[in-house]
Specification:
The chain has a single domain, classed as AttH-like fold (Beta Barrel), CATH 2.40.370. The chain contains no helices and 24 strands. The strands form three sheets. Strands 1, 2, 3, 4, 5, 6, 7, 8, 9, 10, 11, 12, 13 and 20 form a 14-stranded antiparallel sheet that branches. An eight-stranded antiparallel beta barrel has the order 14-15-16-17-18-19-23-24.
């Protein structure tokens, strides 16, 4: 089957784009986009992922607004229309990496938007993600991240928000493809397989962020950046056999075509709400390739949001499935709303799984950055913090309340 992508001389396999040369159900390709404003305490998230081997495309659009997490989900078969739209949810790539038009038109939910996602940094290709178990490749993925701004509008429950760099709106995104991790219910039943290989070093912490600083009315942030770090149970930044694995990676950009400064090291001090793993604030010290020291203070706004309702995991759809499973003919849509203004909270997934102690891991934060020359800039960030199991630097033990394991990416 040929699609419009096959018109261009960019094939990487001897097959048309509608077919993957990897038949594993864990192979997929897709996007995450966000726009957010700390003053409005509003975070808009939207994404799509194509699973060619199940012939499905799934997507979502949602907001975290003053502690209320609202999510609309969409799904259809992929091959009838190989394009980035699912009913009213549509992505048009006006200029790749520079201007992506995100729209959620009229639909039965309480959310609509029309936003141009504008890149203000180069797309940062992360180090390749690779992991193995018992001789089988379980993660083999390319991912890039990018900082941006939004221009347009959001309507939610009758309230309209004008989205503009001039009023403090920032944006983040990533695009990833390949094998990420097995996701039930499309994963084999564990009882038929030998136990998974125990990694020599287990990842306990993931800190990932896209940020913009010093917002300018017409051109967006004065500078922006991306970095992530991953640490073991004992706080070691070492290479791990894990879906993320990279010890540290990132950079700072002055515009999409301006100066790029690679970051080579990062260290953190995180404060938590008493008795939880919810971030109260975080101080990061970063070293750049020229030996300069950058200091950042992250101060979360409102409540963090939970990626489970966007559809990656089992029980995130009301029929118990996920964005990768079949929900019926044509375009399928559903939505839900949760009051998560008090965290932690108890949550029950649609497949019946109980989450007695749940809270968000995706933060909208105000960020203050002190550059090596002492210049101070302010802005906002999307920050993802996983902290699972035993982590000795902050005194967490394996039986303590866990953070949720699903990434938004």
């Amino acid at each position: 089957m040929l699609t419009r992508y096959d018109e261009f001389p960019i094939h990487q396999t001897p097959y048309p784009f509608a077919e993957s040369n990897i038949t594993d159900y864990s192979f997929d390709d897709g996007y995450f986009f966000s726009v957010f404003c700390a003053d409005a305490d509003l975070f808009l998230m939207t994404g799509m992922r194509v699973n060619q081997n199940t012939d499905m495309i799934g997507g979502y659009a949602g907001v975290m607004f003053r502690g209320q997490q609202y999510t609309a989900r969409f799904s259809r078969e992929w091959r009838p229309v190989c394009d980035t739209h699912i009913g009213p949810l549509r992505y048009d790539f006006v200029r790749p990496f520079e201007d992506i038009h995100l729209t959620l038109g009229d639909n039965d939910s309480e959310l609509r938007f029309d936003i141009h996602w504008i890149g203000v940094s180069r797309a940062y290709e992360e180090e390749h993600h690779l992991a193995w178990s018992r001789g089988r490749r379980t993660t083999d993925q390319t991912r890039y991240s990018q900082s941006g701004v939004g221009v347009g509008w959001i309507e939610f429950r009758g309230q309209r928000f004008e989205v503009s760099p001039a009023t403090g709106w920032y944006a983040s995104r990533d695009h990833s493809w390949g094998l990420y991790a097995e996701r039930a219910p499309l994963a084999p039943a564990r009882k038929w397989l030998p136990p998974r290989e125990v990694p020599a070093v287990r990842r306990a912490l993931r800190f990932w962020t896209n940020f913009g600083q010093g917002q300018q009315p017409d051109t967006g942030p004065r500078f922006s950046g991306f970095y992530h770090l991953h640490e073991s149970e004992d706080g070691e930044q070492v290479r791990m056999n894990d879906t993320f694995g990279t010890p540290f990676d990132g950079g700072i950009d002055w515009g999409p075509d301006g100066r790029h400064l690679r970051l080579v090291a990062g260290h953190h001090h995180i404060e938590f709400r008493p008795g939880t793993r919810i971030m109260k604030q975080a101080s990061l010290t970063l070293t750049d390739e020229e030996g300069g020291t950058w200091r950042q203070l992250f101060e979360p706004v409102g409540q963090p949001w939970n990626p489970h309702p966007i559809g990656y995991g089992p029980g995130s759809w009301k029929d118990g499935g996920s964005m990768y499973t079949y929900h019926g003919p044509g375009v399928q849509q559903e939505w839900d709303s949760f009051d998560w203004s008090v965290q932690p909270y108890a949550h029950t997934a649609y497949d019946g799984r109980e989450m007695p102690i749940a809270y968000g891991v995706e933060y909208l934060s105000r960020v203050t950055t002190t550059a090596p020359d002492g210049t101070v800039s302010r802005g906002a960030a999307h920050t993802e913090l996983f902290l699972d199991g035993r982590y000795t630097p902050y005194g967490f033990e394996a039986g303590d309340p866990p953070s949720r394991p699903h990434s938004a990416s």
